[in-house]
Each structure stands twice: as C-alpha cells, then as structure tokens.
Design goal:
Elements (H helix, E strand, L loop, with lengths): L10 H13 L6 H13 L3 E7 L5 E8 L3 H12 L9 H9 L8 E4 L7 H9 L3 E10 L4 E9 L7 H23 L11 H7 L4 H11 L4 H8 L3 H15 L4 H24 L1
Antiparallel strand pairs: 1-2, 1-5, 3-4, 4-5
Helix pairs in contact: 1-2, 8-9, 8-10, 9-10
Length: 274
C-alpha cells in the first residue's frame, strides 16, 4: 500500500500521547487519548472498537469519524445490527472466541477488499468514502476486541511505514485496550457527571447503573458481572434504556452524552461572557 501522504512521526514525539493513554486508563477520557495517539501515529480518519464475547452479537465500544462524527454512529449501528457477519475477519474472530481464556498476540490484518460482499462494501466503505482499513484482533480473557482503523481518499491508503509503525505499537495497543475495556473502573468509584445524570434521568436505577458501566468502557457481559445479574437481564435493561433514550446503540449513547457535555460547556461559556 503506497500513499502520497507519508507519515513522518518520530518515536520520541509519540511518547506524550502514549503516556496520556496510560494515565487515562479506566477513565472517560481514555477514548480521546487513544484516538489522539492513533491519529498522530498513523493518520487515521475513522476508528471503531468492537467486542465479541461468544454470542452472535457485537458490542461497539468506540466509534469515531473525524470528518463526519455522526456518520461513525450510523456505521457502528449497521455493523452491530448484522453486517458484522459479512466481515472477512468474522470467521477468525469466531475461532478466537472459541479459544476461551487464550490470550494470544495481536493480529494485524490489512483491508481484504476482494473478500467483502457487495452490500458490506457499499454500506461501510463506499457510502462513507473510505478506501483503506487495517484491523487489529486482540483476544482477551472474556472477549475478543477488534480495533479497526480507516482512511479516506484525502489521506490516502496506509503505507508500508504506517503498517510497520502500527505493528510496533500493537503490543501497547493490545495492553491498553484489554485493560481499559475489560477492566474498566467500577461505577461505584466514579459518579455520573452532571451531563450524564441529565441524560440518564428518565431511566430506572438499574437501567442507569447499566448505562454508566457501558459508558465507562464495559461490555454488556462485564457490566452484567459487575451488577451481579444474568446476561439476559442485562440485555433487557439495555433494551429498555435505549428505547427510553431514543438511541439504537452504545455508540449513540456515548455520542449523546458527548453532545450534551459540549452544549453545556457552550452555555456556561456564553453565560460567563455576559
């Protein structure tokens, strides 16, 4: 893969971004720190993190498109809604899920355009105008984490240097993602922010607790374990909460809280100016 937009990032220059990721482990700001590191290191335009835990369902843990933020939510919704079964890497993910407790090294897979069904390619690549993708498959103790990095036409495809840099970063990325999303900080150690409290106000106490766990980086399975409830019960709480909030996915829930936080910040800034 060649590109005219060659990355020239030096390793010492990446150290502050790496340190910020470590400092933000288990905190709400981890997603932003991870995105900053990936943008600086390999110039990504879009990033998705999914979790597979053995059921025929997928959790979206992070969805971000720098050029079109709302598009990332829509793409995550399409993928988790069923298109994940058409992913060329899906059979490998199923194989890794079957190896319970096996924590192997991260696997890097460049884009497999020829193996994509037409509908998958149309909805997830042609529609958002993305032309290249690199995936990192990260087996964990309870889930297989799936980091997907994308570029559009402006940035161009990933170069050999980009892939080499990503390969060198893979052990760090695997450790960060496993620790943050599999061992996210318990809700009891961090209260809901005012913005989160306002968004989650219509929910029952159990629905609110579940949503807070999801916002802190937990998968549905690990949230159920923290709440000491059956996975099926957690699924019911999630379904009810999303229906009340008018969101179809975790990515939309996160985006809703972010938009509310931004709006509140602008309001406070406006009030201070007057």
């Amino acid at each position: 893969m060649e590109t005219s937009n060659e990355q020239t990032t030096d390793w010492p220059g990446l150290m502050p971004a790496m340190a910020e990721c470590v400092a933000r482990l288990g905190e709400a700001g981890f997603d932003e720190a991870l995105l900053a590191l990936l943008r600086q290191a390999v110039g990504i335009e879009q990033c998705m993190v999914f979790a597979f835990d053995g059921r025929d369902e997928v959790d979206c843990l992070l969805a971000d498109n720098q050029r079109a933020p709302r598009m990332a939510d829509r793409l995550a919704e399409l993928y988790t809604g069923g298109l994940f079964r058409q992913d060329p890497n899906y059979q490998r993910l199923r194989q890794l899920m079957a190896d319970e407790g096996e924590k192997s090294d991260a696997e890097i897979t460049p884009m497999q355009a020829d193996a994509m069904p037409a509908a998958y390619r149309s909805h997830l690549f042609a529609f958002p105008d993305l032309i290249d993708k690199v995936s990192l498959t990260l087996p964990g103790e309870q889930s297989v984490f799936y980091l997907n990095l994308y570029r559009g036409r402006e940035a161009g495809p990933f170069s050999r240097d980009d892939l080499a840099r990503l390969d060198a970063l893979a052990p760090l990325l695997a450790s960060l993602i496993r620790r943050h999303y599999a061992q996210a900080r318990p809700v009891s150690s961090q209260r809901a922010s005012p913005e989160e409290a306002a968004i989650l106000a219509p929910l029952s106490e159990r629905e609110r607790q579940l949503c807070l766990y999801l916002l802190r980086g937990h998968t549905l399975k690990t949230a159920a374990a923290e709440l000491d409830i059956a996975l099926s019960t957690a699924e019911t709480y999630r379904k009810r909460a999303y229906a009340k909030l008018g969101v179809p996915s975790k990515a939309r829930l996160v985006a809703l809280c972010r938009r509310n936080r931004t709006a509140q910040g602008r309001k406070k800034s406006s009030e201070s100016d007057t």
